[in-house]
From TrEMBL:
UniProt KW keywords: Membrane, Transmembrane, Transmembrane helix
Organism the protein comes from: Thermocoleostomius sinensis A174
Record's protein name: YtxH domain-containing protein
Region (Disordered): 100-124
Stretches that traverse the bilayer: 12-34
Amino acid sequence: MSDNRSESTGSSGLFVGGFLVGAMIGAVTGLLIAPKAGRETRQLLKKSADALPELAEDLSSSVQLQADRLSGSALRNWDETLSRLREAIAVGLEASQRRRQELEQVESPLAAEPHPSVHDSGTK
């Protein structure tokens, strides 16, 4: 469930960033194509250019927030994975120890029984 939330958060951040960049490109293109006097067009371009640092700062902040969220999510996922791995190793060790004890119990009665030797069977 946290994976879906991380993916949607990352996707929304990319969407917002793409939207803002697309809006600026569209605005500049519209200004260049629009039939206005050169002076008016230059003023609009200057205003747009003046807004670029603020837009870049907003975009940078958005990207940084998304990176922080993804980093936190990755750390949580790593911690969960590491915890599950430790549990699996512990369960595996317990199972192998139980199996070893079972095998030792099966082997010990067999070792205690006398085995007739080949030489003894031929002397009777």
